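Weekly sync, protein design subgroup
Attendees: M.S., D.O., the rotation student, P.L. (late)

Item 1: inverse folding check
M.S. brought a backbone from last month's batch and wanted to see whether the design step gives back something sensible before we order anything. D.O. pointed out we never logged the input encoding, so this time it goes straight into the notes. Structure tokens as presented (132 positions):
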């Protein structure tokens, strides 16, 4: 559980936004940032984001739902959302756990993800859902 990143305290209800500010989210983070990670699957290694996870009820779109664009590929299970104006990935409904959203930690207000230091990289090339 990470309750502070740099000088920013992670609030129980923390706002996040895309680069242009058209999309604003409210994340429920009572335990702060839990289990930040990278992934090396084909989309994640290209977008380079560090993600955290919340339950589906843990993200509320405050503003700009009309600017969110959905992208799906391969099994079409995960739902990746991007701002259609600035292109920033904000969040996705996870393939490995469809009851959770992954969110872009770099979108959290006041948070520089580089202040997290070393972050674990998950093996998304050999996805857990492919090992059945």
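Designed sequence read out in the meeting:
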């Amino acid at each position: 559980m990470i309750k502070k990143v740099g000088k920013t305290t992670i609030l129980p209800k923390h706002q996040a936004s895309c680069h242009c500010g058209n999309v604003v989210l409210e994340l429920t983070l009572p335990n702060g940032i839990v289990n930040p990670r990278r992934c090396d699957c084909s989309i994640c290694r290209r977008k380079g984001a560090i993600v955290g996870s919340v339950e589906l009820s843990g993200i509320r779109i405050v503003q700009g739902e009309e600017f969110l664009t959905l992208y799906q590929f391969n099994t079409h299970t995960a739902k990746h959302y991007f701002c259609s104006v600035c292109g920033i990935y904000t969040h996705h409904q996870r393939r490995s756990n469809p009851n959770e959203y992954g969110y872009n930690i770099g979108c959290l207000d006041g948070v520089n993800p580089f202040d997290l230091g070393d972050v674990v990289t998950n093996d998304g090339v050999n996805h857990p859902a492919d090992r059945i």
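Discussion: The helical segments are 44-47. The radius of gyration is 14 Å.
Action: P.L. to compare against the previous round before Friday.
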